[in-house]
Amino acid sequence: xxxxxxxMIAPLIHLLAVxxxxxxYANAKLVGLWPKxxxxxxxxxxxxxxxxxxxxxxxxYITVIGTIVTLLLCSLLAYTLTRPMMPARKIIMKLIVVxxxxxxPLIPSYLLVKQLGMINSLWSLIIPGxxxxxxxxxxxxxxxxxxxxxxxxxxxxxxGEQRIYxxxxxxxxxxxxxxxxxFHTVSQWNxxxxxxxxxxxxxxxxxxxxxxxxxxxxxxxxxMSDFQLSTQFTPEMMKAGIVLVATLPILIVYPxxxxxxxxxxxxxxxxx
Length: 272
What we know:
By secondary structure, the chain is an all-alpha fold.
């Protein structure tokens, strides 16, 4: 585990060393795990870029809103599929499982998003991936572990299905909901492929697309090339610094949800 952990941390340490080294060493690729000629000005230059702040705001928005929408839709469907009075719930479950084997192809998905008028809209990065069969199965399995006596007692007290869902099921399901939050937050924050297909305006690019354009196209589509030519920092230093800036938010969120992760994943996967 120590070796595995070090192998995952080493690239981040290398990027930090490159971003803090002097330009001549970074450009010549002579930096390993320790900076050569310490300087911190590159991060000030990165945060002075308007594109970085705008892209980070877009990424935070689609991650937060997308996670909320996913939790709401998946938990509602999962709860409905656990209720005995739900008609055809076994058939619906089989149809959900089929999506594991036959995912939606790219072209029909694009045509649907276009027909719904979500091209060049942030909703195109939220709605298509809001419902996940994997999340529904985990939450449904967790809900099935809630004692049936709680539902009967709530109905005797006059609670309807809506109040049972909001007052009993959701408060008891915080571990599995935290697990799904962690899964979707990481996935949404790191995704860029959907944005490259659906988003046309540079102002709506999330941070990962900005980073992808910087690395793959060397900043040609992000307006970064002129900035790099007008500063003392090399493209290698800028790339390393921006990668770390893009990774930092998710590294902060992960430890906050980690304590719920193992419990939620286990309880949501071993019962049937």
